[in-house]
Amino acid sequence: MKVETAKKVEDAAAWRKYSENVLPPLLQAALDSFVEHGYHGTTIRTVAARAKLSVPGLYHHYASKQALLVAIVQFAMTDLLVRSEDAVAEAGSSVEEQFRLLIECLALFHAHRSELAFIAASEIRSLEGESRTAHIKSRDKQQQMVDDIINQGMREGVFDAEHPKDTSRAIVTMCTGIAQWYRRDGELSPEELAVRYANIARMTLGVGPGSRRESVLTAPTPVLTDARGRPDRG
Amino acid sequence: MKVETAKKVEDAAAWRKYSENVLPPLLQAALDSFVEHGYHGTTIRTVAARAKLSVPGLYHHYASKQALLVAIVQFAMTDLLVRSEDAVAEAGSSVEEQFRLLIECLALFHAHRSELAFIAASEIRSLEGESRTAHIKSRDKQQQMVDDIINQGMREGVFDAEHPKDTSRAIVTMCTGIAQWYRRDGELSPEELAVRYANIARMTLGVGPGSRRESVLTAPTPVLTDARGRPDRG
DNA sequence: TAACTCCTACCGAGCGATCGCTCGGTAGGA
DNA sequence: TCCTACCGAGCGATCGCTCGGTAGGAGTTA
């Protein structure tokens, strides 16, 4: 019972924790190359060299260049969806809180995992066959989560928007857009940015930054963790 | 004098007018290919075939594949900047109106010229040398225009934002993001979308959709024009 | 314990296809 | 005689990918 409670508390905050080097070295090399030159602009030789492997050495691990992209994109979409569901679950039954945490989660992901999110968004057209279909489905599901919460908030009279569907898209777009410009060496930490974006998003729904502005995220909670998931600062 | 006034009135609304087929056929073929497969995913043979030209025929008009991209991107950034300046100029001295028209202009451009805007944003990394530098400079200038108006509005007490800089970036991102998802066959016309986005943007600055919601854009002003710049409907 | 058989984890060399681009033309109007 | 507007053929480079290996560790047998 005691253990279960502890576990539950830990799990509840799992969506906020981002460890570094989550990708195997070879996928990380591919990701870095894709970010720099795009999928078609990247050669298999570049990726292999970056991973300190020969070309056949690379093909021992992945069947094709396409397989590298698929693995990266699938990792990204699964990670985001799991985190999003955790965030909404943590919020309980309050739509306002569900919305706030979901937007924080979205912003947090696109700042912490900006390279991953950038490729997942920009290289959809380079995905072949059903990988592309599956990816688009995930994107739509992500958008739908925000739509649903906003619609629920509208019904409850908590939110006020002239065009909820457009507002929802605008909010999701501004969050996913973070991946395009966010730099780790910039002024804002992902956590600070996420709180600000959640507040901006709330404004579009007629809810001021108002109550509970001091989110748990701004408290001294350790957020960055090492490869084993343990805090490495804070 | 009379002529000059008429010209001035016409010019003042020029930023709202979008004619089709603004690009020479060859550049349009290149743009369509870049949108479908990306710059590196596009072969010069594909572009040539699309333009009903042989490969040497293509090279008669443009020196290289890179030159095609540069021409497209330069056209896009010049068009947007000129329109933005016209929009702000039309607004007169009211920051609130300057902001509203600038956001409408931004949204309008990214909906009407979504392919152009999409490539200009996503293929920056494929630009070589000073073309890339020049393009980034233009992007920054565009962002700066919004920053400046928001800052002015803050000083005048018209706008209220906790973090004006972040709000500004969020607004610009959500507008440029239109190019990623907008479809001409969707539910909203570019003009309807632009009005909605301007209102959403105003909300983030603590200004309700409020006054003057019926913008000139929703009035029966003809907006689409033919290749010669004349209205073709309305 | 030495020899043998697997297995994983690679690599040097290179294949066929395709890439961006060019050479040396032609056709037709001024 | 130019010039513009093209094109068939093809060059050298590079692409994604593969062939036929080797190195070394684990497990099995004599």
What does this structure look like?
Two copies of one chain form a homodimer. With about 230 residues, chain A is mainly α. Chain A has two domains: about 25-60, Homeodomain-like (Arc Repressor Mutant, subunit A); about 70-210, Orthogonal Bundle (Tetracycline Repressor, domain 2), CATH 1.10.357.10. In chain A, about 65% of the residues lie in helices and about 0% in strands. Chain A has eleven helices and two strands; from the N terminus they run αβααααααααααβ. Chain A has a two-stranded parallel ribbon with strand order 1-2. In chain A, helix 2 crosses helix 3 (about 45-50), helix 2 (about 25-35) crosses helix 7 and helix 5 packs parallel to helix 8 (about 130-155). The longest helix of chain A has 27 residues, at about 65-90. Mean pLDDT of chain A is about 90; it is low at about 1-5 and about 210-234. At the A-B interface, helix 9, helix 10 and helix 11 of A face helix 9, helix 10 and helix 11 of B. Chain A binds a DNA duplex (30 and 30 nucleotides) through helix 4.
Strand content of chain A: under 5%
**Count of distinct structural domains of chain A:** 2
- Parts with pLDDT < 50 across at least 5 consecutive residues of chain A: 1-7, 211-234
> What is the name of the CATH architecture of the largest domain in chain A?
Orthogonal Bundle
Overall pLDDT level of chain A: 88
Shape of chain A: elongated
Largest sheet of chain A: 2 strands, parallel
| The named CATH superfamily of the largest domain in chain A | Tetracycline Repressor, domain 2
CATH class of the largest domain in chain A, anyone?
Mainly Alpha
Number of strands of chain A: 2
Domain HTH tetR-type (chains A, B): 20-80
InterPro entries (chains A, B): Homeodomain-like_sf, HTH-type_TetR-like_transc_reg, HTH_TetR, KstR2_TetR_C, Tet_transcr_reg_TetR-rel_C_sf
Protein name (chains A, B): TetR/AcrR family transcriptional regulator
Keywords (chains A, B): DNA-binding
